[in-house]
C-alpha cells in the first residue's frame, strides 16, 4: 500500500513540476467545450440534450491526449525502467500510475464542469454527476494508462493512442452520456447505465491489472 | 490424446496440399448453391441470396478474432513471435470478412430497409469491432517484424479488444435495435429456413471457413517469412560491420 502511495506521490509530483502537460489538457478541454457550443449553438434554447455528449467526448479526448506525454516522459527519462527494477509487484506500479492520472484528470474535468455550469447556466456540480464523472473516468483512465505506458516507446504513439483507445471506450461513452442525461432529468431509468458504467470501471481496472505485469515482465 | 495431437499435426503439415482444392471446391459449391440451387425468396427476391455470404462471413470473422485472442495470449505467455505472426494473419483475415459482412449487409439493407446504413445494435457493434481490429493492425504495423515489445503491446490491445466485445454488444443493444433476430438457429425441430436454404447456408459456411483458413495460412506464412528475412538482414548487417572493423 505504501508502495502504491509512493508511485502516486511521485507521478503527481512530476505532473506538478511539469505543469505544462496537464495545463494543456485542461485548456484543450475548455476550448473544446467552447468550440462545441459554437458548432451546435448551445447558447440558444435548451443545451441539456447535447451537453452530456459534449462533456464526455471532451473528457475522453482530454484524457487520451494527456496520458501519452506523461508515460512518454517516464520512459524517456528512465523512470519506468527504474520502477520496474524496484522490488515491488508491477501491479502496484500500474495502480499508482493510473491513480495519479485519475486524480490529475479529475481536476481538469471538474474545472470543465465549473466552466460549463457558468457558461450554460445549468448546475453541473451535483452529487450524481460528480459520481458519474468519477466512476466513468476511473473506467477509461485504467485503459488509457495501460495503453499509454506500454506504447510509450513506439513510433507514432501520439496518433496511435486515440485510434486504439477510443473504439474500446464506446460502451463507456454510451453509458456515461446516458447516465449524465438522466442526472440532468432528461430521461427516466438511470439504473442500467450507471450499472454498466460501474461494470466497465471494474472490468477495465481488473483486466489492466492482470495484463500489465504480463506485458512488462522481462 | 497424443494420437489426436499427432493427427492435428499431420493435417497442419498437409495444409498446402489440402486447403487449396478443398477451398476451391467449397467456394465453387457456395457460388452454385447460392445462385442456382437455393430457391428465390418470396418477399425479398434475389437479394436475399446475399445471406449465403453475409452470415458465413461474420462467423469466419469471429473465428479469426478468436484465433487472434488465443494467439495474443500465446505472445504474452511465451514471447514467441510465431504467435505474433499467427495473430496478425488472423486479424487481417478477420477484418477482411467483417468488411465483407458490412458490405453485403449494406447492399442487402438498401432494397429491404430502404437505407444502406442504420444505427441498429448489431450493425453498430460490428462496425466498432471492425475499427478495433483495424486499430490492432495499425498498432502492429508501425513497428517492424521482430520488435518484441510492439508484439506484446499489440497482444495486450487484442486481448482487451476481445474481452470488450460483450460490453460493446450489451451497451449497443440497450442503445438501439432493428436488425432481425437470429432466425437460422431457432431450434432444430422447427427451423425457420427451408431445407434447401439451410443446406446451401451450411455449404457456404464450410466454403467461407476453408477460405478464411487458407488465407490465414498464406498470410501467416508470409509473416513468418518476413520475420526470417528480418533476422537474416540483421545478421548480414552485423557481418558487414564485423568485416569492416576487421579491415
Structural class of chain B: mainly alpha
Strand-residue fraction of chain B? under 5%
> How many distinct beta strands of chain A?
0
Shape of chain A: globular
Major protein interface: A-B, 30 and 29 residues
Q: Compute the average pLDDT of chain B.
A: 87
Pairing-aware structural class of the strands and helices of chain A?
A: mainly alpha
Helix content range of chain B: over 70%
Task: Please give the alpha-carbon distance between the first and last residues of chain B.
Answer: 58 Å
Tally of individual domains of chain A: 1
Span between N and C termini of chain A? 24 Å
Largest sheet of chain B: none
CA gyration radius of chain A, whole angstroms: 17 Å
Give me the Rg of chain B, rounded.
22 Å
Number of strands of chain B: 0
**Subunit arrangement of the protein:** heterodimer
Question: Average pLDDT of chain A, to the nearest integer?
Answer: 86
Coarse shape of chain B: globular
Tell me what you see in this structure.
The complex is a heterodimer of chains A (218) and B (247). Chain A is mainly alpha-helical and 218 residues long. Chain A has one domain. In chain A, 81% of the residues lie in helices and 0% in strands. The two termini of chain A are 24 Å apart. By secondary structure, chain B is an all-alpha fold. Chain B has one domain (50-231). In chain B, helix 3 (51-78) runs antiparallel to helix 4 and helix 3 (51-78) crosses helix 6. The longest helix of chain B is centred in the last third of the chain and has 52 residues, at 195-246. The termini of chain B are far apart. At the A-B interface, helix 6, helix 7, helix 8 and helix 9 of A face helix 5 and helix 6 of B.
Amino acid at each position: 500500500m505504501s508502495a502504491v502511495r509512493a508511485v502516486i506521490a511521485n507521478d503527481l509530483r512530476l505532473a506538478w513540476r511539469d505543469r505544462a502537460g496537464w495545463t494543456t489538457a485542461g485548456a484543450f478541454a475548455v476550448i473544446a467545450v467552447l468550440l462545441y457550443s459554437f458548432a451546435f449553438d448551445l447558447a440558444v434554447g435548451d443545451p441539456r440534450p447535447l451537453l452530456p455528449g459534449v462533456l464526455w467526448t471532451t473528457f475522453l479526448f482530454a484524457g487520451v491526449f494527456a496520458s501519452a506525454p506523461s508515460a512518454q516522459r517516464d520512459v524517456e527519462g528512465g523512470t519506468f525502467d527504474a520502477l520496474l527494477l524496484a522490488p515491488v509487484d508491477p501491479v502496484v506500479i500500474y495502480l499508482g500510475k493510473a491513480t495519479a492520472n485519475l486524480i490529475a484528470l479529475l481536476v481538469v474535468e471538474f474545472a470543465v464542469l465549473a466552466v460549463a455550469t457558468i457558461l450554460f447556466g445549468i448546475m453541473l456540480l451535483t452529487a450524481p454527476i460528480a459520481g458519474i464523472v468519477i466512476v466513468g473516468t476511473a473506467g477509461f483512465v485504467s485503459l488509457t494508462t495501460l495503453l499509454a505506458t506500454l506504447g510509450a516507446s513506439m513510433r507514432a504513439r501520439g496518433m496511435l493512442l486515440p485510434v486504439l483507445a477510443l473504439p474500446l471506450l464506446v460502451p463507456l461513452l454510451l453509458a456515461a452520456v446516458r447516465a449524465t442525461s438522466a442526472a440532468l432529468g432528461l430521461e427516466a431509468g438511470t439504473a442500467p447505465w450507471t450499472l454498466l458504467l460501474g461494470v466497465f470501471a471494474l472490468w477495465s481496472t481488473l483486466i489492466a491489472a492482470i495484463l500489465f505485469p504480463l506485458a512488462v515482465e522481462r | 490424446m497424443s494420437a489426436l495431437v499427432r493427427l492435428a499435426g499431420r493435417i497442419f503439415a498437409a495444409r498446402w496440399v489440402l486447403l487449396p482444392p478443398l477451398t476451391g471446391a467449397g467456394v465453387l459449391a457456395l457460388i452454385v448453391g447460392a445462385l442456382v440451387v437455393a430457391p428465390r425468396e418470396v418477399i425479398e427476391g434475389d437479394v436475399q441470396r446475399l445471406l449465403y455470404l453475409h452470415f458465413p462471413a461474420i462467423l469466419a470473422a469471429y473465428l479469426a478474432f478468436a484465433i487472434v485472442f488465443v494467439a495474443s495470449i500465446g505472445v504474452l505467455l511465451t514471447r514467441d513471435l510465431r504467435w505474433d505472426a499467427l495473430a496478425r494473419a488472423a486479424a487481417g483475415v478477420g477484418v477482411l470478412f467483417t468488411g465483407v459482412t458490412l458490405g453485403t449487409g449494406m447492399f442487402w439493407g438498401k432494397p429491404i430497409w430502404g437505407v444502406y446504413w442504420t444505427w441498429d445494435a448489431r450493425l453498430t457493434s460490428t462496425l466498432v469491432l471492425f475499427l478495433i481490429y483495424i486499430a490492432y493492425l495499425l498498432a502492429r504495423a508501425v513497428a517492424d517484424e521482430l520488435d518484441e515489445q510492439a508484439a506484446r503491446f499489440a497482444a495486450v490491445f487484442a486481448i482487451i479488444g476481445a474481452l470488450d466485445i460483450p460490453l460493446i454488444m450489451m451497451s449497443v443493444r440497450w442503445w438501439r435495435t432493428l436488425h432481425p433476430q437470429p432466425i437460422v438457429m431457432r431450434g432444430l425441430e422447427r427451423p425457420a429456413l427451408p431445407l434447401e436454404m439451410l443446406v446451401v447456408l451450411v455449404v457456404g459456411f464450410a466454403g467461407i471457413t476453408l477460405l478464411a483458413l487458407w488465407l490465414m495460412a498464406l498470410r501467416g506464412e508470409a509473416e513468418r517469412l518476413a520475420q526470417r528475412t528480418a533476422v537474416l538482414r540483421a545478421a548480414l548487417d552485423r557481418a558487414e560491420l564485423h568485416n569492416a572493423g576487421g579491415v
